[in-house]
Design brief:
The complex is a heterotrimer of chains A (299), B (347) and C (293).
Chain A: H1 2-7, H2 9-47, H3 52-58, H4 68-77, H5 88-119, H6 125-133, H7 144-153, H8 160-164, H9 172-183, H10 186-194, H11 199-210, H12 212-227, H13 231-236, H14 245-258, H15 265-285, H16 287-297
Chain B: E1 4-12, E2 18-27, E3 32-36, H1 43-51, E4 58-63, E5 66-67, E6 78-81, H2 93-103, H3 108-121, H4 137-150, E7 155-159, H5 167-184, E8 187-192, H6 195-201, E9 204-209, E10 212-217, H7 219-224, H8 229-234, E11 241-247, E12 252-255, E13 258-261, E14 270-276, E15 282-296, E16 300-307, E17 310-317, E18 326-330, E19 337-340
Parallel strand pairs in B: 3-8, 3-9, 6-7, 7-8
Antiparallel strand pairs in B: 1-2, 1-4, 4-5, 9-10, 11-12, 11-14, 12-13, 14-19, 15-16, 15-18, 16-17
Helix pairs in contact in B: 2-3, 2-4, 3-4
Chain C: H1 10-37, E1 40-42, E2 49-51, H2 55-62, H3 64-97, H4 102-110, H5 117-127, H6 134-141, H7 152-180, H8 184-193, H9 197-227, H10 229-235, H11 247-257, H12 261-288
The chains are: A mainly alpha (299), B alpha+beta (347), C mainly alpha (293).
Chain lengths: 299, 347, 293
C-alpha cells in the first residue's frame, strides 16, 4: 500500500481530485433535483402557517408563521360547503374508505381471479384472460361519460359502492398476481398435493402466506392510487357528505375562484397538506414495499 | 411397504407428443429402482405419473394391491422428494414435515412424535423451529427427506434429489439416502441423470432413452452386458470405447486392417460396433495404439488416443512411467462387446 | 397455467365470477355504450336520439377546435415525456452512483409520487397565481406579464411543468431499480473494457436500461394523455373555453358541460383506437427486441 502511493504520487493525486470533483457534481445535481421536487410542498406548508390577509398581500410565504395550528384546525374541523356538513374530518374519513376499500377489493378480486387462471385446468382460461386484460387498454377517463350514465342508471350515484366498485374494473392487480403466481416454483403445488392439500387448503395454507409481502406491496400502491382518485369521485359524488379530500380540492379551487372576500388561502393550503400527508407517509415509511409493489406490478 | 407394478404405462401429451412409450416393470417390496437417462428421456414423466401429478395415457399402475390410475396424489400412499426440495418457505422445518399429516387429520400428539423421530433420524432436531431459508442446502435436503419419512408411505419417489448440491455433499447424501431407505425398507423409485448415482444406489436400474426402456437390470448386469450402444456409452465413466467394425462370422472382427478374435460368435454378419471398456484394455500387446493425451486421475490415468484412426481411451493404473507416443494394447477377447451396426442392439 | 393444475370445474369459475362481473358491468357495458352512442345524435334535453351514422366523426375532424386540442395534446405529451424521462434518468444515474446519502436522495426524489395530480394542480395554481404566486413574480421580474388562465401559453406552461413535476418520481423509481438490477459483473466488465464513463453509460448501461426506458415511454405517454386530467381540471377551472386542454379533458367537457353525448362518445372511440394502437405498438416492440434478459 505505502509503496504504491510513494512511487506514483504524481499520478494518484490528479486522479483523486478529478473523482472528488465529479462526486461533488453528482451531489449538486441530486440536491438541485431534490429542491425542485420539494420546494412546492415546502411553500405550501409555510404558507399554511400564515394569515389569509398576509398571504393575500405578500403572496406565498417562504418562512413559517404562527398560524399553522389555527389553519389546520379550521381545515380539519371547520364546516364548509353548501350544506355546511363537510369538514376535513369527514373528507379524511371518505378518503380512507376509498383508499382502503379500493385496495382491499382489488387484492381480493385479483388474487381470486389470478388463482383461477394460474392453478386450474380451465377450458376458457385464455378467454377469461383476455376478457380481463383488455381492460388495460381503456382507462376510465376515456369511457367516463357512458360509465357515469351506467352507474347513475343503476342508482349507485352518491354511494360508496358506486364510488369504489367501478374503479375495480381493471386488470392491473390480476396481472400482477398472475405474474407472481407463475414465478412460484411448480413443485410447491405438487408437494402440497402429495401432502393432501386441495385447492382451498393450498390457497389458504400456502399461497396466501407466501404472498404476504406481495400483498402488502400491492396494497400500498393500490391505497395510494385509490386515495388519489379525482375524476370519478368528482362525478359520482354530488352529496358533500361523500366528498374525499382530493375531491374537496376542487371545492376549494372553486371557492378561491369565486369568492368575493379575501380567500381562505391558509386553510386551503392546510387542507392540501392533509390530502397529501397520508399517502406520502405510507410511501416514505413503507418505501421498500412500495417500490417492490410499483416496479413489479407494472411489469 | 409394497410392490409396485407398471404395465404398459405410456404418456402422450394433448399436442400428440409421445413422452413415454408403453413401459412395464415391477418394483419388489423394499427395492430401490433408479430411472436413469439423459434429459428428455421421459424418466421424470414416468415418475410423475406414478406420483399422480401427470395423467396416465394408457396402461395400469398398481401400488400394493390397489390400482391407482385415477387416484389423487394424496391418496396413493406415496411421498416425494423434489429436486428443488419444494419446502414451504413460510413454515418452520417442523411444520413442513407435519403438514401432510395434519391434512390427513392425524392427532397432534402422534404428529409431534413422528416428526421428532424423523428429526432425530436426520439430525434435524435442533433445526425444527427454523425456516427453510435459514438452512444450508444439505439441511434442506434432509428436511425434504424428513417430510417424506414422517408419512410412512408405501413408496418413496425421488426426483433428482441431489442435483442441486455440490459434489462433496452429493456423495455424502447419496450414502445417507441409501442407508435410510435400507433401514426403513421402503420401496423407492429414484430418478437421476447421473450414472454414478444410478450405479451406486440402485438395486436395479432402468435405463431410458427417448421415452423407451433400453435396459432393466442390476448395476453389474448393466455394466457387464449393456443391451445397446446407448447403454454402453451412457453407463460407466469413462464411457465404453465404441469402434465401427466388420464381422464376417468366422470368429474375428475387422477394424480397418486389424483383426481381433472374439470369444463368442454371433449370428449377425456385416457392419457391427465393437465395444471395449477403457479399464479392460491393458498396455502391451499386439494392437497398435497412438497416444495423444494423458489425464492424471491419481491412482489411475486415462490415455486418450486412436486405434486405426478411431478415438480410443485406456484406463490404466498409474505407474508414473513415461509413455511413448506409439504403444501397443492388449484387448482380451472375453471383454469385447459386439453391437449391431445399425440398431445398436447387443449381439 | 401450472403443469400440475387442479382439476376442479366449479371452483375456478366461482373465483373468476366476481372479477368478470365487475368488468362486464363497469367496463364492457360503458365501452359498448360509448361506441354505440358515437353513431347517434342525442337530443340535448334528453328526448331520445337519432341515428346519424358517422356524422359525429366527420363533424369532429372538421372541427378546427378539435384539431387544435389534438395538436396541443401531441405537443403536451411529447414535452412531458421528454422532460420527465430525461430529468428522472439523470437523477437516477446520479443517485445510483453516489455512495453517501443514496437512500436519503431516493426518498427525497420519490415521495412526490404520492401526491394526487389535482392537488399538484392546485399547488401549481397557487405558485402561478396572478396575485400571490411567486412564479408570477419571477416572470414579471424577467419582464414577462404572466397571466395564468388568461394567456393560452402561460396556462400551458403551468400545466406542463406541474405535470412533469409529479411524473418525475415514477420514472426515477423505475430507472433507479433498473440501474440497480444491472449485474455487478457487467459493470465491472465494462470498467475493464471501456475507460470513458460517458461512453460506458451509452454503450453498456443505457442499452441494458432500454427495456425499462421503453416501458416508461409508454407509461409516460399514457400518463400525459389520461392521468393529467386532475392537473388540467384544477388549473383551467371554470374557464376551459379559451384555455389549453387535452383530448381526454375535451371528452369530459363536451360530454358533461356541453351535453354533446354523441360528439363526446365519438371522441372516446377515437381515444380508444389511439390506446389500442399504442398497445399494439408496445407488444410489437417487446416482441421484436429490447429483451436482453
Amino acid at each position: 500500500m505505502t509503496d504504491t502511493t510513494l512511487s506514483m504520487p504524481v499520478q494518484v493525486a490528479p486522479r483523486g481530485r478529478r473523482i472528488r470533483l465529479s462526486v461533488i457534481g453528482d451531489h449538486f445535481v441530486l440536491i438541485l433535483g431534490a429542491l425542485f421536487m420539494m420546494a412546492p410542498i415546502y411553500m405550501t406548508l409555510t404558507t399554511a402557517s400564515h394569515e389569509n390577509l398576509t398571504i393575500h398581500r405578500e403572496g406565498l410565504q417562504f418562512l413559517f408563521g404562527g398560524e399553522l395550528l389555527n389553519n389546520f384546525d379550521a381545515a380539519m374541523f371547520g364546516q364548509g360547503g353548501f350544506s355546511g356538513e363537510i369538514t376535513g374530518m369527514s373528507m379524511l374519513k371518505n378518503s380512507l374508505i376509498l383508499g382502503m376499500g379500493f385496495a382491499l377489493g382489488k387484492i381480493v378480486l385479483s388474487m381470486m381471479a389470478a388463482y383461477a387462471i394460474v392453478y386450474f385446468r380451465l377450458r376458457f382460461a385464455t378467454f377469461a384472460f383476455w376478457v380481463i386484460f383488455t381492460t388495460l387498454l381503456l382507462p376510465l377517463e376515456v369511457r367516463i361519460v357512458p360509465s357515469y350514465e351506467v352507474i347513475t342508471g343503476l342508482g349507485l350515484a352518491n354511494t360508496y359502492t358506486g364510488l369504489i366498485v367501478p374503479l375495480l374494473a381493471s386488470a392491473t392487480g390480476t396481472f400482477f398476481f398472475r405474474q407472481y403466481f407463475l414465478s412460484i416454483p411448480e413443485e410447491l403445488v405438487e408437494a402440497a398435493r402429495i401432502d393432501g392439500a386441495g385447492p382451498v387448503k393450498f390457497f389458504i395454507d400456502i399461497l396466501v402466506p407466501l404472498s404476504r409481502t406481495m400483498i402488502a406491496a400491492i396494497f400500498i400502491v393500490m391505497f395510494v392510487y385509490g386515495w388519489n382518485q379525482y375524476l370519478w369521485p368528482t362525478l359520482i359524488t354530488t352529496d358533500e357528505g361523500l366528498y374525499t379530500l382530493v375531491r374537496g380540492i376542487k371545492q376549494i379551487r372553486q371557492s378561491l375562484a369565486e369568492s368575493n372576500q379575501i380567500p381562505a388561502y391558509g386553510q386551503a393550503m392546510a387542507l392540501s397538506i392533509i390530502a397529501i400527508l397520508p399517502p406520502v407517509l405510507i410511501v416514505v415509511f413503507l418505501q421498500n414495499w412500495f417500490i417492490k409493489g410499483l416496479v413489479e406490478s407494472d411489469k | 411397504m409394497a410392490t409396485v407394478r407398471l404395465s404398459n404405462i405410456s404418456k402422450t401429451y394433448p399436442n400428440g407428443a409421445k413422452a413415454v412409450h408403453p413401459t412395464s416393470f415391477d418394483i419388489a417390496d423394499g427395492e430401490l429402482i433408479v430411472l436413469v437417462g439423459p434429459s428428455g428421456c421421459g424418466k421424470s414423466t414416468l415418475l410423475r405419473m406414478v406420483a399422480g401429478l401427470e395423467d396416465i395415457t394408457t396402461g395400469e399402475l398398481s401400488i400394493g394391491e390397489r390400482i391407482v390410475n385415477t387416484l389423487d396424489p394424496a391418496e396413493r400412499d406415496i411421498a416425494m422428494v423434489f429436486q428443488n426440495y419444494a419446502l414451504y418457505p413460510h413454515m418452520t422445518v417442523g411444520k413442513n414435515m407435519a403438514y401432510g399429516l395434519k391434512n390427513r387429520g392425524i392427532d397432534k400428539a402422534t404428529i409431534a412424535a413422528k416428526v421428532d423421530t424423523a428429526a432425530q433420524m436426520l439430525n434435524l432436531t435442533e433445526y425444527l423451529d427454523r425456516r427453510p431459508s435459514q438452512l444450508s442446502g444439505g439441511q434442506r435436503q434432509r428436511v425434504a427427506m424428513g417430510r417424506a419419512i414422517v408419512r410412512d408411505p408405501a413408496l418413496f419417489l425421488f426426483d433428482e434429489p441431489l442435483s442441486n448440491l455440490d459434489a462433496k455433499l452429493r456423495n455424502q447424501m447419496r450414502i445417507e439416502i441409501r442407508a435410510l431407505q435400507r433401514r426403513l425398507n421402503t420401496t423407492a423409485m429414484y430418478v437421476t441423470h447421473d450414472q454414478v448415482e444410478a450405479m451406486t444406489m440402485a438395486d436395479r436400474i432402468v435405463v431410458l432413452n427417448g421415452g423407451q426402456v433400453e435396459q432393466i437390470g442390476t448395476p453389474s448386469e448393466i455394466y457387464r452386458a449393456p443391451a445397446s450402444t446407448f447403454v454402453a456409452s451412457f453407463m460407466g465413466a469413462p464411457p465404453m470405447n465404441l469402434i465401427p467394425a466388420h464381422y464376417n462370422g468366422n470368429g474375428t472382427v475387422a477394424v480397418g486392417s486389424l483383426s481381433l478374435p472374439i470369444a463368442r460368435p454371433a449370428d449377425h454378419k456385416g457392419e457391427v460396433v465393437l465395444g471395449i471398456r477403457p479399464e479392460d484394455a491393458t498396455i502391451g500387446g499386439t494392437t497398435p495404439f497412438k497416444l495423444d493425451l494423458i489425464e492424471e486421475l491419481g491412482a489411475n490415468r486415462l490415455l486418450h488416443g486412436t486405434i486405426d484412426g478411431n478415438a480410443f481411451t485406456v484406463n490404466a493404473p498409474n505407474d508414473d512411467q513415461p509413455l511413448a507416443t506409439d504403444l501397443t494394447l492388449s484387448l482380451p477377447n472375453d471383454t469385447l462387446h459386439l453391437f449391431h451396426g445399425e440398431s445398436g442392439v447387443r449381439l | 397455467m401450472k403443469r400440475a393444475a387442479f382439476n376442479h370445474r366449479l371452483l375456478p369459475v366461482a373465483l373468476l365470477v366476481p372479477q368478470i362481473a365487475i368488468i362486464a358491468i363497469f367496463f364492457y357495458w360503458p365501452a359498448w355504450t360509448a361506441i354505440q352512442s358515437s353513431f347517434y345524435l342525442e337530443d340535448p334535453f334528453g328526448f331520445g336520439s337519432t341515428f346519424v351514422g358517422t356524422d359525429n366523426y366527420t363533424r369532429l375532424f372538421a372541427s378546427s377546435e378539435y384539431l387544435k386540442v389534438a395538436q396541443f395534446t401531441i405537443l403536451f405529451t411529447v414535452i412531458i415525456t421528454v422532460f420527465a424521462l430525461g430529468a428522472a434518468l439523470l437523477l437516477a444515474v446520479k443517485a445510483d452512483k453516489v455512495l453517501r446519502g443514496a437512500r436519503t436522495y431516493r426518498t427525497l426524489l420519490m415521495w412526490v409520487y404520492a401526491i394526487a395530480p389535482p392537488v399538484a394542480g392546485f399547488i401549481g395554481v397557487m405558485l402561478f397565481d396572478q396575485n400571490i404566486g411567486p412564479m408570477t413574480d419571477l416572470f414579471n421580474w424577467l419582464g414577462h406579464d404572466y397571466r395564468l388562465g388568461l394567456n393560452y401559453m402561460d396556462t400551458a406552461f403551468a400545466m406542463t411543468i406541474t405535470s412533469i413535476w409529479i411524473q418525475i418520481p415514477v420514472n426515477f423509481i423505475f430507472f433507479l431499480s433498473g440501474l440497480q438490477s444491472i449485474p455487478q459483473s457487467v459493470k465491472e466488465a465494462a470498467m475493464i473494457d471501456n475507460a470513458s464513463p460517458t461512453r460506458r453509460f451509452w454503450e453498456t448501461t443505457f442499452p441494458l436500461l432500454a427495456p425499462t426506458a421503453f416501458f416508461l415511454l409508454i407509461i409516460n405517454i399514457t400518463y400525459a394523455l389520461f392521468d393529467t386530467f386532475g392537473v388540467i381540471d384544477t388549473i383551467v377551472y371554470g374557464n376551459p373555453a379559451s384555455n389549453p386542454m387535452t383530448l381526454v379533458y375535451k371528452v369530459f367537457v363536451d360530454g358533461f358541460r356541453g351535453n354533446d353525448i354523441g360528439g363526446s362518445s365519438a371522441q372516446s372511440v377515437v381515444l380508444m383506437l389511439l390506446v389500442l394502437g399504442l398497445t399494439i405498438f408496445q407488444f410489437r416492440m417487446l416482441e421484436r427486441r429490447i429483451h436482453y434478459t
